[in-house]
Amino acid sequence: MTALTRSSSKLTHAGAMLILEAAVRAADAMGVPQCIAVVDEGANLLAFCRMDGAKVLSIPSCQAKAATAAASGKPTGTAPAESEIKLAVATDGRNTNLKGGLPIIVDGVLVGGIGVGSGTGDQDRDVAAAALAAVGLAA
Amino acid sequence: MTALTRSSSKLTHAGAMLILEAAVRAADAMGVPQCIAVVDEGANLLAFCRMDGAKVLSIPSCQAKAATAAASGKPTGTAPAESEIKLAVATDGRNTNLKGGLPIIVDGVLVGGIGVGSGTGDQDRDVAAAALAAVGLAA
Amino acid sequence: MTALTRSSSKLTHAGAMLILEAAVRAADAMGVPQCIAVVDEGANLLAFCRMDGAKVLSIPSCQAKAATAAASGKPTGTAPAESEIKLAVATDGRNTNLKGGLPIIVDGVLVGGIGVGSGTGDQDRDVAAAALAAVGLAA
Amino acid sequence: MTALTRSSSKLTHAGAMLILEAAVRAADAMGVPQCIAVVDEGANLLAFCRMDGAKVLSIPSCQAKAATAAASGKPTGTAPAESEIKLAVATDGRNTNLKGGLPIIVDGVLVGGIGVGSGTGDQDRDVAAAALAAVGLAA
Residue C106: its pLDDT value, please? Predict the structure, then answer.
Protein backbone atom coordinates (compact mmCIF):
# COMPACT_ATOMS: atom_id res chain seq x y z
CA MET A 1 0.00 0.00 0.00
CA THR A 2 1.23 3.46 -0.79
CA ALA A 3 1.68 5.52 2.33
CA LEU A 4 -0.23 8.76 2.20
CA THR A 5 1.87 10.37 4.89
CA ARG A 6 5.35 10.27 6.30
CA SER A 7 6.63 11.04 9.74
CA SER A 8 8.53 14.26 9.96
CA SER A 9 10.30 16.50 12.41
CA LYS A 10 9.43 20.14 12.84
CA LEU A 11 11.27 22.95 14.60
CA THR A 12 9.22 24.16 17.59
CA HIS A 13 8.61 27.82 18.26
CA ALA A 14 10.26 27.34 21.64
CA GLY A 15 13.34 26.02 19.86
CA ALA A 16 13.26 28.85 17.36
CA MET A 17 13.05 31.40 20.18
CA LEU A 18 16.07 29.78 21.90
CA ILE A 19 18.08 30.08 18.70
CA LEU A 20 16.89 33.66 18.19
CA GLU A 21 17.85 34.69 21.71
CA ALA A 22 21.26 33.05 21.34
CA ALA A 23 21.79 35.01 18.14
CA VAL A 24 20.88 38.26 19.90
CA ARG A 25 23.41 37.49 22.64
CA ALA A 26 26.12 36.66 20.09
CA ALA A 27 25.47 39.89 18.19
CA ASP A 28 25.53 41.85 21.44
CA ALA A 29 28.85 40.27 22.38
CA MET A 30 30.20 41.18 18.92
CA GLY A 31 28.88 44.74 19.26
CA VAL A 32 27.03 44.56 15.92
CA PRO A 33 23.23 45.00 15.96
CA GLN A 34 21.55 42.46 13.70
CA CYS A 35 18.28 41.43 12.11
CA ILE A 36 17.72 37.73 12.76
CA ALA A 37 15.11 35.41 11.28
CA VAL A 38 14.39 31.75 11.98
CA VAL A 39 12.20 29.83 9.51
CA ASP A 40 10.88 26.29 9.45
CA GLU A 41 11.43 23.60 6.81
CA GLY A 42 8.70 25.21 4.68
CA ALA A 43 10.62 28.52 4.70
CA ASN A 44 7.84 30.11 6.74
CA LEU A 45 8.85 32.58 9.45
CA LEU A 46 8.98 31.24 13.02
CA ALA A 47 10.87 33.89 14.97
CA PHE A 48 12.41 37.27 14.29
CA CYS A 49 14.19 40.12 16.06
CA ARG A 50 15.58 43.42 14.77
CA MET A 51 18.04 44.77 17.30
CA ASP A 52 18.30 48.49 18.10
CA GLY A 53 20.36 50.06 15.34
CA ALA A 54 20.11 47.17 12.87
CA LYS A 55 19.23 48.11 9.29
CA VAL A 56 15.57 48.20 8.29
CA LEU A 57 16.47 46.89 4.83
CA SER A 58 17.89 43.79 6.46
CA ILE A 59 14.36 42.84 7.56
CA PRO A 60 13.58 41.25 4.19
CA SER A 61 17.12 40.11 3.36
CA CYS A 62 17.71 38.15 6.59
CA GLN A 63 14.42 36.34 5.95
CA ALA A 64 15.61 35.50 2.44
CA LYS A 65 18.86 34.10 3.85
CA ALA A 66 16.97 31.93 6.35
CA ALA A 67 14.57 30.69 3.68
CA THR A 68 17.39 29.86 1.27
CA ALA A 69 19.30 27.89 3.88
CA ALA A 70 16.15 26.03 4.94
CA ALA A 71 15.27 25.20 1.36
CA SER A 72 18.74 24.13 0.25
CA GLY A 73 20.08 22.59 3.43
CA LYS A 74 23.30 24.50 2.85
CA PRO A 75 24.88 27.73 4.07
CA THR A 76 24.12 30.74 1.88
CA GLY A 77 27.07 32.32 0.12
CA THR A 78 28.22 29.03 -1.36
CA ALA A 79 26.13 28.84 -4.55
CA PRO A 80 27.92 28.98 -7.91
CA ALA A 81 28.18 32.55 -9.25
CA GLU A 82 26.61 31.56 -12.58
CA SER A 83 23.31 30.60 -10.99
CA GLU A 84 22.89 32.84 -7.97
CA ILE A 85 21.23 35.79 -9.70
CA LYS A 86 19.04 33.57 -11.87
CA LEU A 87 17.81 31.76 -8.76
CA ALA A 88 17.18 35.07 -6.99
CA VAL A 89 15.13 36.48 -9.86
CA ALA A 90 13.20 33.24 -10.42
CA THR A 91 12.13 33.24 -6.78
CA ASP A 92 11.26 36.92 -6.58
CA GLY A 93 14.24 37.51 -4.33
CA ARG A 94 13.49 34.78 -1.78
CA ASN A 95 16.53 32.71 -2.83
CA THR A 96 19.66 34.68 -2.03
CA ASN A 97 23.33 33.89 -1.96
CA LEU A 98 24.24 36.60 0.54
CA LYS A 99 26.29 35.20 3.42
CA GLY A 100 24.54 34.83 6.77
CA GLY A 101 22.08 31.98 6.25
CA LEU A 102 22.62 28.54 7.80
CA PRO A 103 20.44 25.44 7.73
CA ILE A 104 19.09 24.14 11.02
CA ILE A 105 19.73 20.41 11.12
CA VAL A 106 18.62 18.41 14.16
CA ASP A 107 19.56 14.72 14.40
CA GLY A 108 20.37 14.72 10.72
CA VAL A 109 17.02 16.19 9.69
CA LEU A 110 16.77 19.58 7.99
CA VAL A 111 14.13 21.42 10.04
CA GLY A 112 14.69 25.08 9.10
CA GLY A 113 17.13 27.91 8.66
CA ILE A 114 18.51 30.96 10.37
CA GLY A 115 19.35 34.18 8.55
CA VAL A 116 21.29 37.10 9.96
CA GLY A 117 21.87 40.50 8.39
CA SER A 118 23.10 44.00 9.14
CA GLY A 119 26.80 43.35 9.61
CA THR A 120 29.40 42.23 7.09
CA GLY A 121 28.71 38.88 5.47
CA ASP A 122 31.24 37.23 7.75
CA GLN A 123 29.78 38.83 10.89
CA ASP A 124 26.31 37.72 9.82
CA ARG A 125 27.47 34.13 9.30
CA ASP A 126 29.39 34.12 12.59
CA VAL A 127 26.32 35.22 14.55
CA ALA A 128 24.22 32.52 12.87
CA ALA A 129 26.87 29.90 13.67
CA ALA A 130 27.16 31.07 17.28
CA ALA A 131 23.40 30.81 17.70
CA LEU A 132 23.35 27.23 16.42
CA ALA A 133 26.34 26.30 18.60
CA ALA A 134 24.59 27.75 21.67
CA VAL A 135 21.82 25.18 21.32
CA GLY A 136 24.22 22.35 20.55
CA LEU A 137 23.83 22.29 16.76
CA ALA A 138 26.53 22.23 14.11
CA ALA A 139 26.86 25.20 11.77
CA MET B 1 15.29 78.70 12.37
CA THR B 2 13.70 75.43 11.26
CA ALA B 3 14.68 72.50 13.46
CA LEU B 4 16.04 69.59 11.43
CA THR B 5 15.20 67.04 14.10
CA ARG B 6 12.77 66.46 16.95
CA SER B 7 13.29 64.33 20.02
CA SER B 8 11.40 61.07 20.00
CA SER B 9 11.03 57.78 21.78
CA LYS B 10 11.61 54.41 20.14
CA LEU B 11 10.58 50.93 21.25
CA THR B 12 13.69 48.88 22.08
CA HIS B 13 14.15 45.35 20.78
CA ALA B 14 14.44 44.21 24.38
CA GLY B 15 11.06 45.77 25.08
CA ALA B 16 9.59 44.25 21.94
CA MET B 17 10.86 40.81 22.96
CA LEU B 18 9.29 41.21 26.43
CA ILE B 19 5.94 42.02 24.83
CA LEU B 20 6.33 39.13 22.38
CA GLU B 21 7.13 36.63 25.12
CA ALA B 22 4.19 37.86 27.20
CA ALA B 23 1.92 37.33 24.21
CA VAL B 24 3.21 33.77 23.76
CA ARG B 25 2.47 33.04 27.42
CA ALA B 26 -1.02 34.53 27.14
CA ALA B 27 -1.77 32.46 24.03
CA ASP B 28 -0.42 29.34 25.75
CA ALA B 29 -2.65 29.98 28.75
CA MET B 30 -5.62 30.40 26.40
CA GLY B 31 -4.71 27.21 24.52
CA VAL B 32 -4.74 28.97 21.13
CA PRO B 33 -1.50 29.03 19.12
CA GLN B 34 -0.88 32.45 17.61
CA CYS B 35 1.28 34.42 15.21
CA ILE B 36 2.50 37.57 16.96
CA ALA B 37 4.27 40.59 15.49
CA VAL B 38 5.63 43.72 17.13
CA VAL B 39 6.52 46.72 14.93
CA ASP B 40 7.99 50.13 15.68
CA GLU B 41 6.41 53.55 15.06
CA GLY B 42 7.50 53.40 11.40
CA ALA B 43 5.64 50.10 10.97
CA ASN B 44 8.90 48.19 10.56
CA LEU B 45 9.09 44.70 12.12
CA LEU B 46 10.88 44.42 15.48
CA ALA B 47 9.92 40.99 16.85
CA PHE B 48 7.88 38.01 15.70
CA CYS B 49 6.89 34.51 16.79
CA ARG B 50 4.69 31.88 15.13
CA MET B 51 3.64 29.32 17.71
CA ASP B 52 3.38 25.60 16.92
CA GLY B 53 0.09 25.06 15.12
CA ALA B 54 -0.57 28.72 14.28
CA LYS B 55 -1.65 29.47 10.71
CA VAL B 56 1.05 30.27 8.16
CA LEU B 57 -1.25 32.77 6.46
CA SER B 58 -1.40 34.70 9.72
CA ILE B 59 2.31 35.52 9.25
CA PRO B 60 1.51 38.46 6.95
CA SER B 61 -1.84 39.34 8.49
CA CYS B 62 -0.56 39.73 12.05
CA GLN B 63 2.15 42.04 10.69
CA ALA B 64 -0.53 44.08 8.91
CA LYS B 65 -2.48 44.34 12.16
CA ALA B 66 0.59 45.54 14.03
CA ALA B 67 1.46 48.05 11.29
CA THR B 68 -2.08 49.41 11.19
CA ALA B 69 -2.22 49.90 14.95
CA ALA B 70 1.23 51.53 14.96
CA ALA B 71 0.28 53.86 12.12
CA SER B 72 -3.14 54.86 13.43
CA GLY B 73 -2.55 54.77 17.17
CA LYS B 74 -5.84 52.89 17.52
CA PRO B 75 -6.93 49.27 17.92
CA THR B 76 -7.69 47.53 14.64
CA GLY B 77 -11.27 46.42 14.11
CA THR B 78 -12.66 49.85 14.84
CA ALA B 79 -12.48 51.53 11.42
CA PRO B 80 -15.75 52.46 9.70
CA ALA B 81 -17.06 49.69 7.43
CA GLU B 82 -17.26 52.02 4.45
CA SER B 83 -13.51 52.66 4.37
CA GLU B 84 -11.84 49.47 5.60
CA ILE B 85 -11.61 47.64 2.28
CA LYS B 86 -10.61 50.76 0.41
CA LEU B 87 -7.79 51.43 2.89
CA ALA B 88 -6.60 47.84 2.63
CA VAL B 89 -6.42 47.89 -1.14
CA ALA B 90 -4.86 51.37 -1.32
CA THR B 91 -2.02 50.22 0.95
CA ASP B 92 -1.43 46.88 -0.75
CA GLY B 93 -2.98 45.08 2.20
CA ARG B 94 -0.80 46.64 4.88
CA ASN B 95 -3.71 48.56 6.44
CA THR B 96 -6.18 46.06 7.82
CA ASN B 97 -9.25 46.29 9.99
CA LEU B 98 -9.06 42.72 11.27
CA LYS B 99 -9.27 42.59 15.07
CA GLY B 100 -6.04 41.80 16.92
CA GLY B 101 -3.88 44.89 16.48
CA LEU B 102 -3.20 47.30 19.33
CA PRO B 103 -1.02 50.40 19.49
CA ILE B 104 1.93 50.37 21.88
CA ILE B 105 1.84 53.62 23.83
CA VAL B 106 4.53 54.29 26.42
CA ASP B 107 4.29 57.41 28.61
CA GLY B 108 1.73 58.83 26.21
CA VAL B 109 3.92 58.35 23.14
CA LEU B 110 2.92 56.02 20.30
CA VAL B 111 6.01 53.86 19.77
CA GLY B 112 4.66 50.88 17.82
CA GLY B 113 2.04 48.22 17.52
CA ILE B 114 1.37 44.56 18.29
CA GLY B 115 -0.61 42.31 15.98
CA VAL B 116 -1.90 38.84 16.83
CA GLY B 117 -3.56 36.37 14.50
CA SER B 118 -4.63 32.74 14.23
CA GLY B 119 -7.52 32.65 16.67
CA THR B 120 -10.87 34.37 16.47
CA GLY B 121 -10.73 38.14 16.30
CA ASP B 122 -11.60 38.40 19.96
CA GLN B 123 -8.96 35.85 20.98
CA ASP B 124 -6.38 37.72 18.92
CA ARG B 125 -7.25 41.03 20.58
CA ASP B 126 -7.27 39.47 24.05
CA VAL B 127 -3.77 38.06 23.58
CA ALA B 128 -2.51 41.43 22.37
CA ALA B 129 -4.12 43.16 25.35
CA ALA B 130 -2.70 40.60 27.80
CA ALA B 131 0.79 41.12 26.37
CA LEU B 132 0.59 44.88 26.85
CA ALA B 133 -0.79 44.46 30.36
CA ALA B 134 2.07 42.12 31.24
CA VAL B 135 4.58 44.92 30.68
CA GLY B 136 2.44 47.50 32.43
CA LEU B 137 0.90 49.14 29.38
CA ALA B 138 -2.74 49.94 28.69
CA ALA B 139 -4.51 48.13 25.87
CA MET C 1 14.51 46.10 34.40
CA THR C 2 14.35 46.09 30.63
CA ALA C 3 13.63 49.53 29.19
CA LEU C 4 10.68 49.47 26.80
CA THR C 5 11.82 52.58 24.97
CA ARG C 6 14.96 54.52 24.14
CA SER C 7 15.27 58.20 23.40
CA SER C 8 15.85 59.01 19.77
CA SER C 9 15.98 61.85 17.28
CA LYS C 10 13.72 62.08 14.25
CA LEU C 11 14.03 64.21 11.12
CA THR C 12 11.19 66.76 11.03
CA HIS C 13 9.13 67.31 7.90
CA ALA C 14 10.18 70.95 8.01
CA GLY C 15 13.81 69.83 8.00
CA ALA C 16 13.14 67.37 5.20
CA MET C 17 11.50 70.12 3.11
CA LEU C 18 14.52 72.40 3.66
CA ILE C 19 16.83 69.67 2.41
CA LEU C 20 14.50 68.95 -0.52
CA GLU C 21 14.33 72.61 -1.55
CA ALA C 22 18.11 72.94 -1.30
CA ALA C 23 18.47 69.93 -3.58
CA VAL C 24 16.11 71.48 -6.13
CA ARG C 25 18.17 74.67 -6.11
CA ALA C 26 21.41 72.73 -6.52
CA ALA C 27 20.00 70.76 -9.44
CA ASP C 28 18.71 73.96 -11.02
CA ALA C 29 22.13 75.55 -10.70
CA MET C 30 23.65 72.46 -12.32
CA GLY C 31 21.07 72.53 -15.12
CA VAL C 32 20.09 68.89 -14.54
CA PRO C 33 16.47 68.15 -13.55
CA GLN C 34 16.31 65.57 -10.76
CA CYS C 35 14.01 63.36 -8.74
CA ILE C 36 14.75 63.86 -5.05
CA ALA C 37 13.52 61.84 -2.07
CA VAL C 38 14.08 62.31 1.65
CA VAL C 39 13.26 59.43 4.00
CA ASP C 40 13.42 59.03 7.77
CA GLU C 41 15.49 56.55 9.78
CA GLY C 42 12.86 53.84 9.18
CA ALA C 43 13.21 54.34 5.40
CA ASN C 44 9.70 55.81 5.17
CA LEU C 45 9.21 58.71 2.71
CA LEU C 46 9.16 62.22 4.18
CA ALA C 47 9.55 64.56 1.21
CA PHE C 48 9.81 64.26 -2.56
CA CYS C 49 10.07 66.39 -5.70
CA ARG C 50 10.35 65.44 -9.37
CA MET C 51 11.62 68.40 -11.34
CA ASP C 52 10.34 69.25 -14.83
CA GLY C 53 12.11 66.95 -17.25
CA ALA C 54 13.38 64.46 -14.68
CA LYS C 55 12.88 60.78 -15.49
CA VAL C 56 9.70 59.09 -14.25
CA LEU C 57 11.62 55.88 -13.61
CA SER C 58 13.81 57.77 -11.19
CA ILE C 59 10.75 58.14 -8.93
CA PRO C 60 11.27 54.68 -7.41
CA SER C 61 15.05 54.58 -7.78
CA CYS C 62 15.73 57.83 -5.92
CA GLN C 63 13.55 56.50 -3.08
CA ALA C 64 15.59 53.28 -3.05
CA LYS C 65 18.79 55.34 -2.86
CA ALA C 66 17.43 57.36 0.07
CA ALA C 67 16.23 54.21 1.85
CA THR C 68 19.55 52.45 1.37
CA ALA C 69 21.53 55.38 2.74
CA ALA C 70 19.15 55.75 5.68
CA ALA C 71 19.36 52.04 6.47
CA SER C 72 23.11 51.66 6.11
CA GLY C 73 24.32 55.05 7.31
CA LYS C 74 26.65 55.15 4.31
CA PRO C 75 26.64 56.72 0.84
CA THR C 76 25.24 54.46 -1.86
CA GLY C 77 27.65 53.39 -4.58
CA THR C 78 30.20 52.12 -2.10
CA ALA C 79 29.00 48.54 -1.52
CA PRO C 80 31.22 45.67 -2.68
CA ALA C 81 30.43 44.55 -6.22
CA GLU C 82 29.96 40.95 -5.14
CA SER C 83 26.98 41.74 -2.92
CA GLU C 84 25.18 44.69 -4.54
CA ILE C 85 22.91 42.72 -6.87
CA LYS C 86 22.15 40.10 -4.27
CA LEU C 87 21.15 42.78 -1.74
CA ALA C 88 18.95 44.49 -4.32
CA VAL C 89 17.09 41.32 -5.20
CA ALA C 90 16.76 40.16 -1.59
CA THR C 91 15.07 43.44 -0.66
CA ASP C 92 12.79 43.61 -3.69
CA GLY C 93 14.88 46.41 -5.14
CA ARG C 94 14.75 48.68 -2.10
CA ASN C 95 18.47 48.28 -1.36
CA THR C 96 20.42 49.77 -4.24
CA ASN C 97 24.05 50.57 -4.86
CA LEU C 98 23.37 53.26 -7.46
CA LYS C 99 25.24 56.48 -6.66
CA GLY C 100 23.17 59.38 -5.36
CA GLY C 101 22.09 58.33 -1.88
CA LEU C 102 23.57 59.92 1.24
CA PRO C 103 22.77 59.37 4.92
CA ILE C 104 21.38 62.33 6.87
CA ILE C 105 23.34 62.54 10.11
CA VAL C 106 22.47 65.29 12.60
CA ASP C 107 24.65 65.73 15.74
CA GLY C 108 26.10 62.28 15.14
CA VAL C 109 22.72 60.56 14.89
CA LEU C 110 21.55 58.84 11.69
CA VAL C 111 18.08 60.29 11.13
CA GLY C 112 17.40 59.50 7.47
CA GLY C 113 18.64 59.60 3.92
CA ILE C 114 18.44 61.62 0.72
CA GLY C 115 18.34 60.02 -2.72
CA VAL C 116 18.75 61.84 -6.01
CA GLY C 117 18.31 60.42 -9.49
CA SER C 118 17.97 61.44 -13.12
CA GLY C 119 21.48 62.66 -13.86
CA THR C 120 24.73 60.73 -13.98
CA GLY C 121 25.67 58.98 -10.76
CA ASP C 122 28.17 61.73 -9.97
CA GLN C 123 25.65 64.49 -10.66
CA ASP C 124 23.12 62.74 -8.44
CA ARG C 125 25.60 62.44 -5.58
CA ASP C 126 26.73 66.06 -6.00
CA VAL C 127 23.17 67.34 -5.72
CA ALA C 128 22.59 65.24 -2.60
CA ALA C 129 25.82 66.53 -1.07
CA ALA C 130 24.97 70.16 -1.95
CA ALA C 131 21.57 69.78 -0.30
CA LEU C 132 23.09 68.50 2.94
CA ALA C 133 25.74 71.24 2.90
CA ALA C 134 23.03 73.89 2.45
CA VAL C 135 21.53 72.95 5.81
CA GLY C 136 24.90 72.69 7.51
CA LEU C 137 25.28 68.90 7.38
CA ALA C 138 28.27 66.87 6.23
CA ALA C 139 27.89 64.71 3.11
CA MET D 1 -2.17 64.87 -42.74
CA THR D 2 -2.55 63.09 -39.45
CA ALA D 3 -0.98 65.04 -36.64
CA LEU D 4 1.57 62.98 -34.76
CA THR D 5 1.50 65.22 -31.72
CA ARG D 6 -0.83 67.49 -29.85
CA SER D 7 -0.13 70.46 -27.66
CA SER D 8 -0.62 69.83 -24.00
CA SER D 9 -0.31 71.47 -20.62
CA LYS D 10 1.72 70.01 -17.80
CA LEU D 11 1.85 70.86 -14.12
CA THR D 12 5.32 72.24 -13.21
CA HIS D 13 7.24 71.03 -10.21
CA ALA D 14 7.27 74.61 -8.96
CA GLY D 15 3.48 74.64 -9.16
CA ALA D 16 3.27 71.25 -7.46
CA MET D 17 5.49 72.48 -4.63
CA LEU D 18 3.28 75.56 -4.16
CA ILE D 19 0.22 73.34 -3.85
CA LEU D 20 2.09 70.99 -1.49
CA GLU D 21 3.21 73.84 0.78
CA ALA D 22 -0.32 75.29 0.84
CA ALA D 23 -1.62 71.88 1.90
CA VAL D 24 0.94 71.69 4.71
CA ARG D 25 -0.15 75.12 5.94
CA ALA D 26 -3.82 74.14 5.78
CA ALA D 27 -3.18 70.95 7.73
CA ASP D 28 -1.14 72.86 10.28
CA ALA D 29 -3.97 75.36 10.72
CA MET D 30 -6.39 72.47 11.18
CA GLY D 31 -4.06 70.80 13.69
CA VAL D 32 -4.08 67.48 11.80
CA PRO D 33 -0.76 66.15 10.45
CA GLN D 34 -1.17 64.82 6.92
CA CYS D 35 0.53 62.90 4.13
CA ILE D 36 0.16 64.89 0.91
CA ALA D 37 0.95 63.85 -2.65
CA VAL D 38 0.75 65.79 -5.90
CA VAL D 39 0.87 63.86 -9.19
CA ASP D 40 0.86 64.94 -12.82
CA GLU D 41 -1.63 64.02 -15.54
CA GLY D 42 0.17 60.70 -16.00
CA ALA D 43 -0.40 59.87 -12.32
CA ASN D 44 3.33 60.06 -11.69
CA LEU D 45 4.48 61.60 -8.39
CA LEU D 46 5.59 65.23 -8.52
CA ALA D 47 5.71 66.34 -4.89
CA PHE D 48 5.15 64.76 -1.50
CA CYS D 49 5.34 65.59 2.20
CA ARG D 50 4.60 63.48 5.29
CA MET D 51 4.12 65.81 8.24
CA ASP D 52 5.40 64.95 11.73
CA GLY D 53 2.90 62.56 13.27
CA ALA D 54 1.10 61.63 10.03
CA LYS D 55 0.48 57.93 9.49
CA VAL D 56 3.11 55.92 7.62
CA LEU D 57 0.38 53.81 6.00
CA SER D 58 -1.02 56.98 4.45
CA ILE D 59 2.16 57.25 2.33
CA PRO D 60 0.77 54.84 -0.29
CA SER D 61 -2.91 55.72 0.14
CA CYS D 62 -2.53 59.48 -0.39
CA GLN D 63 -0.63 58.71 -3.59
CA ALA D 64 -3.48 56.47 -4.71
CA LYS D 65 -5.96 59.26 -4.02
CA ALA D 66 -3.94 61.75 -6.07
CA ALA D 67 -3.53 59.29 -8.93
CA THR D 68 -7.23 58.47 -8.99
CA ALA D 69 -8.24 62.12 -9.09
CA ALA D 70 -5.70 62.86 -11.82
CA ALA D 71 -6.85 59.90 -13.89
CA SER D 72 -10.58 60.49 -13.52
CA GLY D 73 -10.72 64.26 -13.34
CA LYS D 74 -13.09 63.93 -10.41
CA PRO D 75 -12.85 64.04 -6.61
CA THR D 76 -12.30 60.66 -4.99
CA GLY D 77 -15.10 59.39 -2.77
CA THR D 78 -17.73 59.91 -5.45
CA ALA D 79 -17.50 56.65 -7.42
CA PRO D 80 -20.48 54.27 -7.39
CA ALA D 81 -20.23 51.69 -4.60
CA GLU D 82 -20.73 48.80 -7.03
CA SER D 83 -17.52 49.55 -8.94
CA GLU D 84 -15.10 51.04 -6.42
CA ILE D 85 -13.60 47.80 -5.13
CA LYS D 86 -13.46 46.23 -8.57
CA LEU D 87 -11.56 49.25 -9.86
CA ALA D 88 -9.21 49.15 -6.87
CA VAL D 89 -8.38 45.49 -7.36
CA ALA D 90 -8.01 45.80 -11.14
CA THR D 91 -5.47 48.57 -10.69
CA ASP D 92 -3.50 46.90 -7.92
CA GLY D 93 -4.79 49.45 -5.45
CA ARG D 94 -3.85 52.57 -7.42
CA ASN D 95 -7.50 53.49 -8.06
CA THR D 96 -9.14 54.28 -4.76
CA ASN D 97 -12.42 55.79 -3.70
CA LEU D 98 -11.22 57.01 -0.33
CA LYS D 99 -12.05 60.69 0.19
CA GLY D 100 -9.17 63.15 -0.03
CA GLY D 101 -8.23 63.19 -3.72
CA LEU D 102 -9.01 66.17 -5.97
CA PRO D 103 -8.17 66.78 -9.63
CA ILE D 104 -5.93 69.72 -10.46
CA ILE D 105 -7.56 71.60 -13.31
CA VAL D 106 -5.86 74.70 -14.72
CA ASP D 107 -7.67 76.78 -17.35
CA GLY D 108 -10.03 73.91 -17.97
CA VAL D 109 -7.26 71.40 -18.52
CA LEU D 110 -6.78 68.40 -16.20
CA VAL D 111 -3.07 68.52 -15.31
CA GLY D 112 -2.86 66.33 -12.20
CA GLY D 113 -4.23 65.49 -8.80
CA ILE D 114 -3.68 66.04 -5.11
CA GLY D 115 -4.22 63.35 -2.49
CA VAL D 116 -4.30 63.89 1.26
CA GLY D 117 -4.47 61.27 3.99
CA SER D 118 -4.09 60.76 7.72
CA GLY D 119 -7.16 62.57 9.01
CA THR D 120 -10.81 61.71 8.56
CA GLY D 121 -12.01 61.57 4.97
CA ASP D 122 -13.57 65.00 5.34
CA GLN D 123 -10.43 66.52 6.87
CA ASP D 124 -8.37 65.03 4.05
CA ARG D 125 -10.67 66.51 1.39
CA ASP D 126 -10.77 69.89 3.14
CA VAL D 127 -6.97 70.13 3.19
CA ALA D 128 -6.82 69.24 -0.51
CA ALA D 129 -9.46 71.85 -1.32
CA ALA D 130 -7.70 74.51 0.76
CA ALA D 131 -4.44 73.81 -1.06
CA LEU D 132 -6.08 74.27 -4.46
CA ALA D 133 -7.86 77.43 -3.31
CA ALA D 134 -4.56 78.86 -2.05
CA VAL D 135 -3.18 78.83 -5.61
CA GLY D 136 -6.41 80.14 -7.12
CA LEU D 137 -7.83 76.83 -8.35
CA ALA D 138 -11.33 75.46 -7.87
CA ALA D 139 -11.76 72.30 -5.80
Answer: 97
Longest CA span, chain D:
57
CB contact under 8 A, B71 and D57: yes
Nearest residue to C100 via CA among C68, C73, C54, C72: C68
Q: What is the pLDDT of residues D104-128, one digit of tens each?
A: 999 999 999 999 999 999 999 999 9
D121 to chain B: which residues are within 8 Å by CB?
83
Q: Are D88 and B86 in contact (CB under 8 A)?
A: yes
Nearest-by-CA chain B residue for D85: B86
- D93: Cα within 13 Å, side-chain hemisphere: 16
Question: What distance lies between CA B66 and its chain's CA centroid?
Answer: 3
pTM > 0.90: yes or no: yes
- Class (C level, CATH) for C13-134: alpha beta
- pLDDT tens, residue by residue, D19-59: 999 999 999 999 999 999 999 999 999 999 999 999 999 99
Structure ipTM: 0.96
> Inter-chain contact C43–A56, Cβ cutoff 8 Å?
yes
* Chain C closest-CA separation from residue A77 CA (Å): 10
